[in-house]
Amino acid sequence: MPALAIPARSARLQPAAVLELLKPITWFAPMWAFGCGVVSSGRAVDGRWALVLAGVALAGPLVCGTSQAVNDWFDRHVDAINEPNRPIPSGRLPGRSGLVIAFACTALSLLVAAALGRWAFGAAVFGLLLAWAYSAPPVRLKRNGWWGNLACAACYEGLPWFTAAAIMAGALPDWRIIAVAAAYSAGAHGIMTLNDFKSVEGDRQTGVNSLPVLLGVERAARLACLVMALPQVVVIGLLLGWGHVGHAAAVAVLLLAQAGLMDRFMQDPRGRAPWYNGTGTTLYVLGMLVAAFALRSGGVA
Predict the structure, then answer these.
(1) Is 300 left (phi over 0), alpha (psi -120 to 50) or beta?
(2) To the nearest whole percent, how much of the chain has pLDDT over 70?
(3) How many CB atoms within 10 Å of residue 279?
(4) Is the pTM of this model over 0.85?
(5) Mean pLDDT (whole number) for 279-295
(6) Every domain of the chain and the residues it spans
(7) C-alpha count within 13 angstroms, C-beta hemisphere, residue 177
(8) Under CATH, what is the fold of the domain 15-297?
């Protein structure tokens, strides 16, 4: 691995560069999952909007934003190859400002989580530990695509869903909520693989064994599709078993639509990964919301 240089070009911190570091586009997934957790809890939001909005902020801009700052700091040598215009390798965030921002966001996340109660605080601690373990040595889970993607998938889908349901109920969520959240979290492992196709060369050069590096692009793409599809089949089976036939049918239709898109994606995995992220992944998260409404309508306590 090349030496980790400390960028130093600009003397001032640029607000636009800080926002770019935190990657707002990545906040959608955990915020959406938190919303699904709120819906699935079956609890009324009336009078608790401040709590819900604070939870959404915790899941997205705070914890997810922290993970992006941590990742960009410890990946600055990789980004210098794959994305040299990123804020840190380009010098728009000078010196160790990227690391300072990561620590500051971590502290702010913990403060907000503590104000939301023990369930939010415990979940935030777990998520932040995974965020740092994913990127920072000596653990650096992202060096292995199996473990790294698992950590990301848990933080993006399962953890915020569980957290929201626990906050709304003030207790451990019903096992059905946990089962559905875990299934969609497992499927998100495939979504994380889609994100690795853009950085194969840099990953290979710097010793990051993403699944496209370990398995090759085509095999990794097939695995991503399979990993995304199978948990949805499990969710369909669970919903049918619980008597939610209409909701199960809706998730099945969404899965069939994804299958058609997957076929086109497999014709050019590297070129069409961003396209599939904007189409197939959208259908995937719509299925999450359908399942959340099924849990709500089922009177989950």
Answers:
(1) beta
(2) 95
(3) 17
(4) yes
(5) 97
(6) 15-297
(7) 32
(8) Farnesyl Diphosphate Synthase (1.10.600)
